[in-house]
Amino acid sequence: MYEEQSKEVSALLHRVAEDMDSLHINDFRQKLADLRLRQSDPEIYNNFDKLKGINIEVKKIENIVKPWDDVKTRLEDLSVLIEISESEKDAGARGEILGALTGSLAVVKELELRRFFQEDFDAGNSYLSIQSGAGGTESCDWALMLYRMYTRWMESRGYAYTIMDYQEGDEAGVKSVTLLVEGPYAHGFLACEAGVHRLVRISPFDANARRHTSFVAVYATPEIEDDVEVTLNWTEIRTDTYRSSGAGGQHVNKTDSAVRLTHIPSGIVVSCQAERSQIQNREKAIRMLKAKLHEKALLDRQAAMDAKAIEKKKIEWGSQIRSYVMQPYQLVKDHRTEFETSNVNAVLDGEIEPFLEAYLRSGQTATAKS
For all residues of the chain together, what is the average pLDDT? Predict the structure, then answer.
C-alpha cells in the first residue's frame, strides 16, 4: 500500500546522508561540542569578549547543523509512520504521509541550495536597496513594482523586513527604498538579485500608449554582527535631518526625525526614517553606514572589485542582469543564466525562487553586494 512512499523516503534519507557527509556535518558537530565545553568553563565568564565570540560561533554552527538534523529526524519519523500504517492497513494516513514527504523534499532542496553560499555574511540578514534609474516616472513606478515583488517573496519565505528609508517619486512610485531583511540566508539570496533590472511595457503614464523601457538597480549589503569592529571618523561624516516621507502611516512624520549620513571620502550615503525618534533613526543609520563601509573595505582588498561594484555601472541599457518584458510578448529572462519564464505576473508576485536557484547552481559570483 505504501511501498512507493517508503522507497521515496529511503532515497531521500540516503540523499540527506550524502549531503551531510559532503558538508562535513559531523566535523561541525564535534566543533560545536568543543565550543559548548568552553562555554561551561567558569573561567570564561571573566572574559566577556571571548565568551561573546564563542556564543556567536556556537549560533553560526547550530544554524548549519540543526536544520540537517531536523530534516533527518523528520524523515526517520516518517519512515516509522509508513511502517505502522502499512502493518495496520491504514489507508487514512496517506494524505499525511504525502504532505510530510513533499514538505521534507522542499526542505532538503532548500538546504542543498545553502551549500552554494560561500561568503562570510551570506547566512545573515541583509539591507536591500532599490534605486530607480533611467526612465523618470516610469522608472519610479518600476521600482515600486520591484519593491512589491521582493516583499511578496520575503513574506512567502517567512522573512521579516523593516522599511529603513522610503523616498517617493515625484509623480508616482518610489525613487528609492531601503529595507532591513531578517531571516536565514537573507543576504545570500538577495545578493543573487543585485544588479540592474529592466522592464519593457506599454506605459500607463503615456496617453499615446507607447512602449517604454525602464531601469532599476538593486543592491544588497549584509548586516554586520556586533563583533565586527568598524571605526567611524565623524570629521568625515555629514549628518542631515529631514521630515519622513512615504506612502502614509508609519512612513510619515511631522518633525525632522529622519536622518541621512554622508561619508564624504567614499561618497556613501545612508538614510533612515523607520522610527519616530531622531536618535533611533541615527543609531540605525550608523549601523547601515558601518555595514556599507565594512563591505567596501572587503571589496577594496579584492582584485576583482571593478567586476563586483555595481554602482560603477549606469542604471540603463546594456547593464541589466534581468529583463522583464510585458509587451509585445511576455517573458522574464535572466541574462546571467539564460533562465527564463513567460509567467511575468507570477514573478512580479514574488515567485523568484527558480531564478535564485538557477543563479546559485550556475556557480557565479554575485555581481554586486552593496
Answer: 86
77: exposed, middle or buried (Cβ count in 10 Å: 0-12, 13-18, 19+): exposed
Write out the three cell numbers for 242. 529631514
Length of the chain: 370
- Using CA of residue 71, residue 74, residue 76, residue 79, what is the dihedral sign? negative
Give me the pLDDT at residue 217, please: 95
Top-level CATH class of 119-370? alpha beta
- Architecture of the domain made up of 3-114: Up-down Bundle (1.20)
First to last CA, the chain: 54
pLDDT in tens, 329-369: 999 999 999 999 999 999 999 999 999 999 999 877 544 34
Q: Please list the residue range(s) of the chain that carry CATH number 1.20.58.410.
A: 3-114
The Cα–Cα gap between 31 and 58 comes to 9
C-alpha distances in Å from residue 46, one per residue of 30, 33, 43, 49, 126: 25, 21, 6, 9, 33
Could you tell me which residues come within 8 angstroms of residue 353 by beta carbon, excluding any fewer than 6 positions away?
153
Global pTM? 0.76
Those residues whose C-beta lies under 8 Å from the C-beta of residue 224, and which sit 6 or more positions away, are 121, 230, 287, 290, 291, 294
